[in-house]
Amino acid sequence: MNGHLRLGVDIGGTFTDFALFDESTRTLATHKQLTTPADPSACVLEGIDRLLAREGRNVSELRAVIHGTTLITNAVIERKGARTGMLVTEGFRDILDVGMESRYDLFDLRIEFAEPVVPRALRVGIPERLRHDGKAEVPLDEPAVREAVRRLVEVDQIESLAICFLHAYVNPAHEQQALALVQDLYPDLPVCASADIAPVMREFERWSTTTVNAYTQPLAVSYLGRIEQELAARGFDGAFLIMTSSGGALTSSQAQRWPVRLIESGPAAGALMAAFVGEQAGYPDILSFDMGGTTAKGAVVRNAKPLKRYRLEVARAHEFRTGSGLPLRIPVIDMIEIGAGGGSLAAVDERGLLAVGPRSAGADPGPACYARGGQQATLTDANTLLGYLVPDRFLGGDMPLDVDQARNAVESHVAEPLQVDAARAAWGIHEVINEDVARAFRMHGSETGFDYRSCTMVAFGGSGPVHAVRVARNLGIPRVIFPPAAGVMSAVGLLVAPLAVELMRSERTRLDTLSDPRIEAQFAALITQATGFLETAGVAPEDIVVERRMDMRYAGQGYEVEVTLPAMEMEGSATERLPALFRARYAEVFSDVTLDQPLEIVNWKVEATAPQPEVGATFGLGFHRPGEATLGTHPVYQPESGSVLDCPIIDRYALAPGSVVEGPALIQERESTCVIGAGETLRIDEALNAVAELRAR
To answer: Are residues 60 and 102 located together in one domain of the fold?
Structure first.
C-alpha cells in the first residue's frame, strides 16, 4: 500500500460518480458516467479505468478505494435479494407481520405496510425459550433445528438464513447453538443471528434488521467480492473500504458481514462532505441538499456535525408516512429522502393534475434528451427546455442532450394533456419538484426542531445546483453554497470518511445501582469488539478515538434520549454527572420537567473512529484555470414574464477567489450547473466555493 492516490466511487440510480485525490499534490480529479443497472460493478470498474487513463495514472498508485453504493437499498426496495429463510422462537412466527400493532393512518381502510423480506412460508418456529433476564425456560430443540434447516435448504431452496430468537440480545446462547448446528450441516449457507446483527431490545425491530441483513448478504458478498477481484487483477493492493449509513467506513469483509449498514451508504457521504464544506466556509449550521438523477436527500448539520439516529425505515409503502416501512436498528445519518431527481417521470394523473416522480427513468433508458430510447417526460427534459442545462456542454460535452426529443416528450406527456405550451409545461415540472422537495424538508425540519431560516444550504449532486436557489427561497434560507465539483460531491465525501465502527447493545439498568467501575465494565466488551475491527483493518490502537453513549429514560417510559458519557479522566464521577446531563438532554427533546422517577439506562453504545483522512480546505483550487470566464449566452425561460432571456454562461473553473457574479447566470462546470436568478449575487470564496446570497422574497 505505497500509493498516494485515494479514489471515491459513488453509485447512484442514474449516474456513478468518481473523485480521485492525489495526496502528494493535493489536487482532485473527477469523473461521471451512467450507471449500469444490470451490473453496477461494470460501471465502477469501467469508470476507474477511464479516470485513471485520462489522468495518466495506474491502479497500483491507489492507496485506497472508498465505495458508496445504493445496491443494498435498491435490493430491498425492488425485492431483488436472496431467497431467505428464518428460524424463530416457536409461537412468534408472525411478529414480522404483526409489527408494532400500530397503524400509521387510523382512517385508511386500505392501509398498506411494507411486506417482510421473508415470506411467512419460509419462517419456521423452533421450540426454545429464554426469559427476559436471559435464563433458559425451554432448552433449544436441536433435532427441530436440523429438520427445519434441511427442509428450508433442500425443499424450499433458500439462499440465506436468519436466526431470530426471543431475548437473544440478553443471552445469545440459543442463537449461537443453532448457528453452530446450521454451519455444521451447510457450511456455505450465509447465516445471520440477531444477537450479532442487532443486539437490542424490541423483537420486531431486531428481527426486521436481521432478516434484511440476511436478505442482502449474498448480494453484497457477490458484488463486493467481484469488485475486489477485478481490482486485484488490475494490480490494486490497497484498502477497499465501504461507506456506511452513519458516515464512517468499513472494510469490505466487515461490510459483507453487515450489509444492512450500507442502506444509506452514498447519501451519508454527501452529508458528511456538506458538513466539511460548511465548517470550512464558516457556516456550522447547514441544510445538506443532495439531488441526483433519482432521489433528493436532505440532512441537518448542527455545529458542523450531521445529526444521527439509530432507527431507519426502508421500502415504505407510503413515501412520507413513518410506520409504513421496514424498521431497521442501525446507526444512520438523519436524513429525508424522496423520489425526486433528474430522471423523475412527469405525467398528468387521472385527476388532470401534474405529478412528477417518484418513478424514475433511471440510467436505462434515461430521460428522453439522452437519446437512449426514453420516451416519457422527465425533470431533466424540462430543465433542458427551460435552458437551465446547456445541451452541448452536458458532462463537459461528452454527452450532448437532444433538445428535440426533450420537447417531444414534454409536449406529448404534459403540455398537450394540460393544454399549455411546452415551456409552461416544463416550468410546471420544475416547480412541482421544487415544492415537493421543500415540503419534505419542512417536515424533516419540524421533526428535528431545526429552523431553516437561520442556516445555510450546501447544494450538490447533478441536479441539486439547478434547483437549490428556488428550494432555498421556498424554505426562507438566505444563502446557498455550491462547492467545487458539486456534481460529484458524494464521491468527494467518501474521501473524508474515516474508518469507524458503531456498536450498540441493550441492557436495562437503573442508574442508582451503578458505580463508575461497573459502567466501565458494561462498555468493556463493546469497546474491545469495536477497536478490534479497526485494528484488524490496520489502524494503530493509539490512533483510535472511542466515544461512549447511552440511551436513558425515566423508569417506566417508552422512549429514550441519548446522553454522551463523560470521559472518566474528567474531574468528578460519571454517575454523579449523568443525572444533570440526562435532564439537560431531556429538556432539549421533550420539556424542562424533572420527574420523581429513577433513571434507567436502556442501550449502551460505542463508536470507535480512526483519524479522518486529510483532504484540505483548498482541494477545490485544483480546478481553477485562469482565463475568460464568460463562455457565451444561452436562452433561459423567465417564468415571471413567460419570455426567454439570453443569460451568460460562466465557466466555474475560470472564477478565481473573490470573483463576483450577478444573476441571472448559469455557472457551468463539467458535472453540474448552478442556476442563479435575477437579483442574486454569487461570490467565490477562498476555497473556490460559490456562495449565493439570496434576495428576500
So the answer is: no
126: cell is 423452533
pLDDT at 261 over 80: yes
Does residue 33 share a domain with residue 91?
no
Residue 470 confidence (pLDDT): 94
d(CA 122, CA 105): 29
What is the distance, to the nearest Å, from the Cα of residue 420 to the centroid of all Cα atoms in its chain? 38
Q: Using an 8 Å Cβ cutoff, are 268 and 305 in contact? A: no
Of 609, 625, 660, which marks where a domain is finished? 609
Q: Indicate whether 526 belongs to any domain.
A: yes
Residues 93 and 146 in one domain: yes
* Domain match, 16 and 130 both: no
Label residue 1 by pLDDT band (50, 70, 90): very low
Q: What are phi and psi of 68, to 5 degrees?
A: -115, 135
- The winner for highest mean pLDDT among 28-32, 123-127, 318-322, 512-516 is 123-127
Position 182 confidence tier, pLDDT thresholds 50, 70, 90:
very high
Q: Is the distance from CB of 13 to CB of 363 less than 8 angstroms?
A: yes
Instruction: Count CB-CB contacts under 10 A for residue 155.
Output: 8
pLDDT confidence bin for 589, thresholds 50/70/90? confident
Domain identity same for 195 and 105:
yes
Give, to the nearest 10 degrees, the angle between helix 464-475 and helix 422-448.
60
How much of the chain exceeds pLDDT 90, in percent? Answer: 59
- Give the N- to C-terminal CA distance of the chain in Å, as an integer: 54
pTM listed for this prediction: 0.87
Q: Are 240 and 67 in contact (CB under 8 A)?
A: yes
pLDDT exceeds 90 at position 128: yes
What are the two backbone dihedrals, phi and then psi, of residue 92, each rounded to the nearest 5 degrees?
A: -120, 25
Residues 198 and 97 in one domain: yes
Instruction: Tell me the three cell numbers of residue 255.
Output: 461490510
* Amino acid occupying residue 491: A
Residues 63 and 164 in one domain: no
Residues constituting the chain: 697
Mean pLDDT in residue range 18-46: 88
**Domain end among 399, 430, 461:** 430
For 101, residues 6+ apart whose C-beta sits below 8 A from its C-beta are none
In-domain check, residue 281? no
Which sign does the torsion angle of CA 70, 623, 397, 434 carry? positive
**Do residue 521 and residue 590 come from a single domain?**
yes
Residue 339 counted as domain residue = no
CATH number at residue 29: 3.30.420.40
Residue pLDDT, tens place only, 464-493: 999 999 999 999 999 999 998 888 888 988
Quote the number of domains for the chain.
4
Q: Using the Cα atoms of residue 79, residue 82, residue 83 and residue 84 in order, give the sign of their dihedral.
A: negative
Contact between residue 682 and residue 692 where contact means Cβ atoms under 8 Å apart = yes
SS3 186: coil
> If you average pLDDT over every residue of the chain, what do you get?
90
Give every CB contact of residue 282 below 8 A, 6+ residues apart in sequence: none
The C-alpha cell at 640 is 415571471
Q: Mutual orientation of helices 516-536 and 574-589 as an angle, nearest 10°? A: 80
Containing structural domain, residue 604: 500-609
Domain presence at residue 276:
no
Reported confidence tier of residue 437, pLDDT bands at 50, 70, 90: very high
